[in-house]
Amino acid sequence: MASPILLWTCLLLVAAPPCCNAVGIGLRVPLRSGVQIQEEIFGPPRLRSRTPRVARDVEDILQDVDFVDMIDNLRGKSGQGYYVEMSVGTPPQKLNILVDTGSSNFAVGAAQQKFLKRYYQRELSSTFRDLRKSVYVPYTQGKWEGELGTDLVFIPHGPNVTIRANIAAITASDKFFINGSNWEGILGLAYAEIARPDENLEPFFDSLVKQTRVPNIFSLQLCGAGFYSNESESTASVGGSMIIGGCDASLYVGDIWYTPIRKEWYYEVVIVKMEINGQDLKMDCKEYNYDKSIVDSGTTNLRLPRKVFQAAVKAIKAASSTEKFPDGFWLGEQLVCWQVGTTPWHIFPVISLYLMGESTNQSFRITILPQQYLRPVEDVATSQDDCYKFAISQSSTGTVMGAVIMEGFYVVFDRAHKKIGFAVSTCHVHDEYRTATVEGPFLTGDMDDCGYNIPQTDESTLMTIAYVMAAICGLFMLPLCLMVFQWRCCRCLRRNGDDFADDISLLK
């Protein structure tokens, strides 16, 4: 008969949570370096295939019980977003849906539109319910409008649950769907505050958590330029994984470092410092977060506020000064090309972002390589060359840590604990000299001062302003009132002195 201690141990192993909630985990077998383990599993860079990965240690086996079907469930094209297959309606209509952590609406093409090969046909679904409301959503690029409803939704390579979710049926759009992107809708994974038409429209992930036992957490591994396809698919095709309900230890190496979610609307975080090749930009940390800093899988570039962008580009130019590039390259308007296999990665600096840590006055840094912020682009005119676009751009809406940042890391959106985790991804692109890193902790000053707050005037100030304006108006009105009073008195005196009424005085 088994001892009670052994039975309890087995129960604890079976009930082990699907994701790590702190830096490091208890059951973890020590791992080798990121580069070493990647080359052992995937082979050298540029030689990886889509062959499913095999669990390598105890934790992987535990994780794979829940998440093996979700591994490699994302597809896409570099610069055009990552999508997951979803089934909508009864009978199911399969659609590819863009995964976007920078918005909150679940919306699908519901009419014939430019660049759409298929679309959601509401009239064919017996479970569709019309909410009789319209919705309009603009993005940084593109916009759409549609009609709200609800229907049954299932993710084939996701949790084994079907839910009723709010759906925006897109009836018209402008520069939203992308030629050749192969997705027909968008899955907004952010919070209700930024949902359209208002925050009362429950986002998809909120519905999923409420209607099922799926934990309030998901994680993304975007493989980007580091994931190369087989011969049967386009050479521009990339992949990745969206793990719904937890995180999978086979998708990252090292520890997961967490930063608090500052505000639950976008996935807003706080950047406390930025370095180019280890050199601090030495800017007021508020500048990095002006007017917010967010993690957004639906944006391609690393977007920076104007002052930060200018300082960063100046530093990158200085570091790569051995070669000259046209001004249009730094603006994202021109490509630069080298002969295949001769890209001088070594002349470009690494970029480090320091994020607020969970502990007081501590931060950690994520470091990205030029292989991430120089995005490969297929140039028809020079198909024999390796061509790249500068994937750092200027922003008027704050810092956006887009796909080029996320492609180096396994990113955990722990909504239940209001934090976002970063660990080095097992599929990020690297060379023999440098690799993306997540390191910490670093002692930092008062990081609460780094977050940007939109100036707001409190109620007492508004009341004071109102009283001052009333007093000014009173001063101007007083002489006028005195003049009117004097004129009326004179009229009364004259009328009392006359015995007849002038008919002209009755005309108005």
UniProtKB/TrEMBL annotation:
Entry keyword Endoplasmic reticulum: yes
Source organism, top-level taxon: Eukaryota
Record field: catalytic activity: Broad endopeptidase specificity. Cleaves Glu-Val-Asn-Leu-|-Asp-Ala-Glu-Phe in the Swedish variant of Alzheimer's amyloid precursor protein
A cellular-component GO term for this protein: cytoplasmic vesicle membrane
Topology class, membrane: Single-pass type I membrane protein
Residue ranges occupied by any Peptidase A1 domain in the UniProt entry: 82-423
Top-level enzyme category: hydrolase
Molecular function via GO: aspartic-type endopeptidase activity
TM regions (residue ranges): 465-485
One Pfam family matching this protein: Asp
SUPFAM superfamilies: Acid proteases (SSF50630)
Keyword terms of this UniProt record: Acetylation, Aspartyl protease, Cell membrane, Cell projection, Cytoplasmic vesicle, Disulfide bond, Endoplasmic reticulum, Endosome, Glycoprotein, Golgi apparatus, Hydrolase, Isopeptide bond, Lipoprotein, Lysosome, Membrane, Palmitate, Phosphoprotein, Protease, Signal, Transmembrane, Transmembrane helix, Ubl conjugation, Zymogen
Location in or out of the cell: Cell membrane; Cell projection, Axon; Cell projection, Dendrite; Cell surface
GO biological process, one term: membrane protein ectodomain proteolysis
Catalytic residues identified in the record: D100, D296
Cleavable signal peptide: 1-22
Family annotation (InterPro entries): Aspartic_peptidase_A1, Aspartic_peptidase_AS, BACE, BACE1, Memapsin-like, PEPTIDASE_A1, Peptidase_aspartic_dom_sf
Role: Responsible for the proteolytic processing of the amyloid precursor protein (APP). Cleaves at the N-terminus of the A-beta peptide sequence, between residues 671 and 672 of APP, leads to the generation and extracellular release of beta-cleaved soluble APP, and a corresponding cell-associated C-terminal fragment which is later released by gamma-secretase. Cleaves CHL1.
Protein name according to UniProt: Beta-secretase 1
Lineage: Eukaryota, Metazoa, Chordata, Craniata, Vertebrata
Gene: BACE1
